[in-house]
Every structure is written in C-alpha cells, then in structure tokens.
Design brief:
It is a single chain. This protein has helices spanning 11-23, 34-43, 60-69, 87-95, 108-123, 131-143, and strands at 3-7, 27-31, 48-52, 78-82, 100-103. By secondary structure, the chain is α/β, with parallel strands linked by helices. Mean pLDDT is 82; it is low at 125-130. Keywords: Phosphoprotein. The modification 4-aspartylphosphate is found at residue 52. InterPro entries: Bact_response_regulator, CheY-like_superfamily, Sig_transdc_resp-reg_receiver.
C-alpha cells in the first residue's frame, strides 16, 4: 500500500487525515513541521506528501520548493492544504511546484479523491518526465525570478 506523509503542526488535523487514509489502506507517516517532514522523506518509502501551508519554521510552500529542487524528490506528488484561500498564497504554492492545493474546510471524500489522483499520476509512467526533462524543468524553475508578481483582479465593491 502507498505511504503518505502528512506534515501539519495541528495534531487534530493530522489525526483526521491519518484515520481517513488508513481506512483506504494507506500507510501514514506524520510530521509536525517541515524539518521533521524532511527527515521522514530522507528515510525513504514515501509515495505522496500532504503539507500544511503554515507551520512553525519553514512553511509548506518553502518545503515544497526545496523538494522540487532535489532530483530524488522532484517527482514526488505534493498537495498543500490550508485554510488560506488568498490567491497569492495559492499561486505561490503552485509556483513552488505543488501538484494540488486543497482549502480547509474540505469534504473528506474530496481529500481522499485528490490523494488517490496524486498516487495514480505518480504510478503512471507515461506521465512521468524523463530524467533529462526533469533536469530541464528544475533549471527552468530556478531561472525564473521570484520577484515577479502575478497581478490579481481588484475586488469589486458594491454599494447600494
């Protein structure tokens, strides 16, 4: 069965996700912050990662960026989960290389469905880039200036 790493500083949230994934037969590894998540990944055997955006120390977005920069974890399926629905934060997560972004609160069925899709994509060799393509992708990501801001539409204020 696939092993999923859950990195979240909220113990209740980790437990809820762990129980849901265990019911589907997944093995679960839990981490309380980005550093312990990175240690768990270094130990190997992780098939997908669920990261909370806001954690003590490094954020889930920063960890995602580091994982994408390492050839060993560059293709690892990563989903960021957060109560933050700010468009800038979501775009930053996707720019960091996240495969998916789920906002809290969420329906458990949606979480489980998205995790299954991440795992299916990982197991499909046709969708996995070749080593040279992965290296080119990592180089292209590194070359893009991080100071580029994506303009977002201004909110419309309605007055009566």
């Amino acid at each position: 069965m696939p092993t999923v790493l859950i990195a979240d500083d909220d113990a209740d949230h980790r437990e809820l996700i762990s129980l849901a994934l265990a019911r589907l037969g997944h093995e679960v590894v839990e981490a309380v912050d980005a550093d312990s998540a990175q240690r768990a990944l270094a130990a190997g055997g992780i098939d997908a990662v669920l990261l909370d955006v806001r954690m003590p120390g490094s954020s889930g977005i920063e960890l995602c960026r580091r994982l994408r920069a390492e050839p060993v974890t560059a293709e690892l399926p990563i989903m960021l989960i957060s109560a933050d629905v700010n468009n800038h934060r979501i775009l930053a997560a996707m720019d960091a290389g996240a495969d998916d972004y789920l906002t809290k609160p969420y329906v458990r069925a949606e979480l489980l469905s998205r995790v299954e899709l991440l795992l299916v994509r990982r197991g499909t060799t046709a969708t996995r880039p070749a080593t040279a393509a992965t290296a080119a992708l990592l180089a292209a990501r590194a070359a893009v200036p991080r100071s580029v801001q994506v303009p977002l539409p201004r909110p419309v204020r309605r007055t009566a």
